[in-house]
User: Which sequence fits this backbone?
């Protein structure tokens, strides 16, 4: 049972890992479909007392929001029980929690090449097949909704998407260890990120990158781009000593001539990692 970024919490409250018979039955009925979404503005799922069988309350969207965005407070008040939540003196069974309505979620889309996940907001990613994944941004972290995790609707595909954006919001240095070049480009393109500099934010976490088609990775941290650019254009590099003055370098398909100072006059923002080197100087 994968619990995403909440695993550190769930390891402390290990009794939360025990699933109810209701959850098992519900998962069987779903025939393996792990992401299911209810499209409504408010939820009216009834909860009944296990002891008396009498109607206790209704799970509204506001209650679901409280579970998803204030679960730490609920835990501190010891309201996160094995099979239910106790909120405001009322009990809500975990097996009865509805899925978050996709209508409440913002599509993961960049504005001015910035993807900004705000704490307390729902998000969604829609695959080309039409399958929808919903997420929350809570405590500077993107995750499946906590209500989905505790009610047995974990999705490895959703986990991988959330992990991608969480890594980018902090340090995407090792993205290639977890995601292929094609997968990285797909998720960035689907978010509307275009070639050049872009930013990913998750709450107070923020990192800037250069979207490259070169050999240094897909998402190159901006400070690494700046250091390389400074070396090519301003300071020069010992690497260029191997080439004759006047040698032609291709960067992003464009030609640049090595000048007498063994530097390249490249406009800032060009994909300097997408570079083709000429033949090296052989000497006499």
Assistant:
């Amino acid at each position: 049972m994968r619990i995403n970024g909440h695993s550190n919490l769930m390891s402390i409250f290990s009794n939360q890992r025990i699933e109810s018979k209701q959850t098992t039955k519900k998962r069987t009925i779903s025939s393996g479909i792990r992401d299911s979404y209810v499209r409504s503005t408010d939820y009216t799922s009834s909860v009944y007392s296990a002891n008396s069988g009498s109607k206790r309350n209704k799970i509204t969207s506001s209650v679901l929001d409280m579970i998803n965005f204030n679960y730490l407070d609920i835990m501190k008040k010891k309201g996160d029980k094995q099979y239910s939540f106790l909120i405001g003196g009322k009990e809500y069974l975990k097996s009865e929690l509805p899925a978050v309505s996709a209508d409440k979620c913002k599509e993961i889309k960049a504005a001015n090449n910035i993807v900004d996940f705000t704490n307390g907001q729902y998000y969604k990613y829609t695959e080309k097949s039409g399958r929808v994944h919903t997420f929350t941004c809570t405590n500077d972290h993107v995750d499946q909704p906590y209500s989905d995790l505790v009610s047995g609707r974990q999705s490895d595909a959703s986990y991988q998407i959330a992990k991608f954006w969480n890594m980018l919001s902090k340090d995407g240095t090792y993205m290639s260890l977890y995601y292929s070049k094609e997968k990285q480009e797909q998720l960035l393109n689907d978010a509307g990120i275009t070639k050049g500099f872009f930013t990913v934010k998750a709450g107070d976490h923020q990192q800037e990158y250069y979207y490259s088609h070169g050999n240094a990775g897909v998402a190159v941290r901006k400070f690494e781009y700046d250091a390389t650019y400074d070396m090519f254009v301003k300071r020069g590099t010992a690497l260029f000593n191997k080439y004759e003055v006047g040698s032609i370098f291709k960067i992003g398909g464009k030609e640049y001539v090595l000048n007498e100072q063994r530097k390249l006059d490249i406009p800032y923002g060009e994909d300097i990692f997408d570079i083709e080197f000429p033949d090296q100087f052989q000497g006499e």
User: Anything to note?
Assistant: Residues 7-54 have pLDDT under 50 and may be disordered. The first helix runs from residue 7 to 12. The first strand starts at residue 45 and ends at 48.
